[in-house]
Design goal:
Elements: E1 2-11, H1 13-30, E2 34-40, E3 44-47, H2 55-59, E4 64-67, E5 75-77, E6 80-88, H3 99-115, E7 122-123, E8 145-147, E9 150-160, E10 163-171, H4 176-183, H5 202-217, E11 220-223, H6 228-242, H7 245-250
Helix pairs in contact: 1-6, 3-5
Length: 262
């Protein structure tokens, strides 16, 4: 099956989250997997779907913030490449449809892609106990990518209508002071591509990750952009969900029988 490949520029956190959910809605009808790459402008914080809003996020005025539809902990989206993978569960073999199975499936492809850039990452081992810090990059967790034990890529998932949506953030550079301001979290256990000696354009990173999926899983990508329907759904989600305090503070969704269905 062909995949859609969308390489977007930078946009606000609210718009980026709206687009990602619109792609999930679109896959409900089309059944076509999508891989989207993008950046954040302005630099922003994203919170996990069920995460309590940290006090530091509401007290500081430097960074805007938004709640993701996916789980996990807070991320400062600043010097990075963000990806969104939307995959119907039916596309994957049964052993790859669980949360860990889907993580592993994508990871194998992305690791192959990073190796083309001479970055040798692996999946972090399972950790006992719960990661309590608000900062997603304060320590590796299961399903993260690590290089020499330090976290390079964090990821989180959600599912709806039998569709998997996975987010991931690839650190290109770490501004430790900004992370401290945003989330009061140490970045000692994180590593950036820059620190690993790789200084390239974001599109090079995106191309390498897509190429890894092509090589490892025989995926065929076709360059794409939002359809008119997806654009309209994203606009609704931006206005009625991701720009609303009820969602960002409390995780309360706008509910309508016809929402997103044209």
């Amino acid at each position: 099956m062909n995949w859609r490949l969308i390489q977007d520029g930078a946009a606000s956190g609210e718009w980026n989250m709206a687009v990602d959910e619109a792609l999930l809605e679109g896959a409900r009808d089309s059944g076509t997997p999508v891989l989207r790459f993008y950046s954040w402008e302005p630099a922003s914080i994203s919170l996990g779907r069920l995460q309590k809003v940290p006090e530091v996020v509401t007290q500081q005025s430097t960074f805007k913030w938004v709640r993701r539809p996916t789980g996990g902990r807070a991320v400062l989206h600043q010097h990075e490449v963000t990806y969104c993978a939307v995959i119907p569960e039916s596309y994957l073999k049964k052993e790859n449809r669980s949360v860990i199975g889907a993580y592993n499936w994508l990871t194998q492809g992305f690791i192959t892609g990073l190796e083309t850039l001479d970055i040798h990452a692996k999946l972090a081992p399972a950790h006992r106990g719960r990661q309590m810090a608000d900062n997603c990059f304060s320590a590796p967790a299961q399903c993260d990518f690590v290089v020499n034990g330090r976290k390079l890529i964090g990821a989180a998932q959600c599912r709806k209508y039998g569709i998997i949506l996975q987010h991931g953030a690839i650190l290109m550079h770490i501004d430790a002071q900004s992370w401290q301001t945003a989330l009061e979290g140490s970045m000692h256990d994180a590593v950036s591509l820059e620190e690993l000696g790789l200084r390239v354009d974001k599109r090079v990173i995106a191309t390498a990750l897509a190429t890894g999926l092509e090589q490892h899983w025989d995926v065929n990508f076709e360059q794409s952009q939002l359809t008119e329907t997806e654009q309209n759904v994203a606009s609704q989600l931006h206005r009625l969900k991701y720009s609303q305090a009820s969602w960002n503070y409390q995780g309360k969704e706008y509910v309508s029988e016809n929402f997103g269905r044209g």
